[in-house]
Amino acid sequence: MQLFEIAFTLVTIFMLVLGSFFGQSRKLQRISFFTGLGLLVLHMTIEIIRWQLIFIYLIFIILALFLLKKSIAHLVFRWVGFIIALLFLFTSVFFAIGMPVLKLPEPGGKFDVGTTSISLMDVSREEIHTDDPFDKRELFLEVWYPGKLNEPLKPKSLWSELYSGQRDLVSFFLNYLQKVKTHSFPDIPACQEEVQFPLILFNHGLQMFTSQNTLLMEHLASNGYIVVSIAHPYESLRVNLAHNGTVIPEFITSFEKFKESMEWIKKSSSPVRAATDSIQTVESLEERSEIMLRAIRNSDLNELVEEWTMDNQYVLDRILATGENPLSIHHLIDTARIGIMGMSIGGATAGEFCKVDHRVKAGINMDGLQYGKTHSDSLNVPFMMLYSEDGLRLNDFMRLRSKQDYHEYHFRGARHSDFTDLILVWPVLKVYGQLGEIPGKRVIDLTNKVILNFWDHYLKQKPFYNYPEADYPELDVLAEYPNGTP
Known about the structure:
Elements: H1 3-21, H2 26-46, H3 54-66, H4 75-98, E1 112-126, E2 136-147, H5 169-174, E3 184-186, E4 197-203, H6 214-222, E5 226-231, E6 239-241, E7 245-247, H7 250-253, H8 255-278, H9 285-296, H10 301-319, E8 333-343, H11 345-356, E9 362-366, E10 383-387, H12 396-400, E11 406-411, H13 422-425, H14 440-460, E12 475-480
Helix pairs in contact: 1-2, 1-3, 1-4, 3-4, 6-14, 8-9, 10-11
């Protein structure tokens, strides 16, 4: 919690105790009220009003109103009120601590990190998620790049696309993050120390967003990579588009659409859940792979991955176009060193894209089941698979069909959401079983290291580092090199 939040909360608790059990101490209650009011003003001015503290704000107002009441309620009613108020108060404290206004760790590279964003309109494709037959597919890109900070500037706030622009339910709950500062600086000059840098495309998870892995993006950019994160509208949590405005999924604003979405997810994932259970007793790697392949071949998620793959192809075409280019730093991109990665469904998109676009030299899938249309095709570029406990070994069929270096890193005890910034930004998810056992900063550090190591080797030809178990007990490592070890 922030400094004045803590002080205001303590004063509110003190007022609650005074009002409940020391009703005659009017003078002390008034002093506490004015102290609390002053702290609230400082909190509102210097920090930020956030929904997590809503119950504390309300309790303070109610206690202030009770100061106007001359009579004192019966002790039984005061005890009941005290217990109820205390429960609500600690509920606020729980969410305030579990969703903190935190200081983010700095990236580990030598370059400053610049960031920019653009919208692109693919006039050749209809937008299938709207009823307007004239609506075209519009995409949003968030970009991180090696920059040069020539003067002190204000950094970008965390996940800003989720609360900038128009007000809605998403922006209401996430607006407090404007006080969480990243280490990315909007539109600063690009670094000129190197002629060109490798390009990495990134794809978010289903109903996630472009900056869900900001700490990873900053780490890569600070180490000499240009990272372009692609938002897939109507399947992102929230996107601000230049022409179509703010787009959020219908299930957020409609309870009926929410039920439909839950039913669709249940239907789509049911064969996979059944297959995951059945392979637990199967020893043969080939047989396990066939069971999983049968489960995903007819999934609706294959269509989604195909759509996202087309998004990536269009974005890469536009970025590498020789004519007028929408990306101001396009001249810094080394077109011979292009990689792709993603998390969850975005990771499946990365795997699919590696098979269909020869411009990509390597790929990474962060805990995504490999949906797509090319299940039986071989991987012909180096690939890395990061696994949590939730998806462990489900993509063995990819490894069996790989003709190039294939790496697997199993994060022992990790959960699916650990491969996003959520592990630091919302530690409250650990209480609900959505985060694993490894401390958040350790997961971020490990993820950044193994991913940078992979890109440095396959896009910059640096020596490959093998992680010794003694120093990295959280990792189970598997690597196969059909053409010889690196």
